[in-house]
Design goal:
This protein is mostly helical and 105 residues long. It has one domain. It has helices at 2-24, 34-56, 59-68, 76-86, 89-93. The protein is elongated and about 65 Å long.
Length: 105
């Protein structure tokens, strides 16, 4: 479920940047710098990448999940539930990648 929230957040950021670009590209008053686009696109891609790492259970995804989940705490009903899920042993076990034993020949 954590990956889903990150993908939704990343998609929302990317869609918002695209919509903002379409609405303000010919406006002389509302101008967003290329640096602003780079930062917001980077955030959208970061959330998408975090969701993918969480989905596949990579160890780096666990830490990136904590960092990206900080923003969800602004909505207590959502954020506190997500942080409670992150403390569950099942969630932490998802990130332990047991390596298969090497077969002796």
């Amino acid at each position: 479920m954590q990956a889903y929230y990150h993908w939704v957040m990343g998609g929302t950021i990317l869609a918002s940047v695209g919509l903002l670009f379409l609405l303000t590209r010919n406006s002389p008053v509302l101008v967003m710098s290329p640096k602003g686009y780079a930062i917001t696109l980077g955030l959208g891609l970061l959330y998408g990448f975090a969701g993918t790492l969480v989905w596949f259970g990579f160890r780096a995804g666990l830490y990136l999940n904590y960092a990206c989940s900080l923003i969800y705490l602004t909505r207590p009903r959502l954020g506190l539930n997500l942080w409670a899920d992150m403390r569950r042993p099942e969630f932490k076990a998802h990130f332990t990648n047991p390596r298969p034993a090497k077969e002796e020949v």
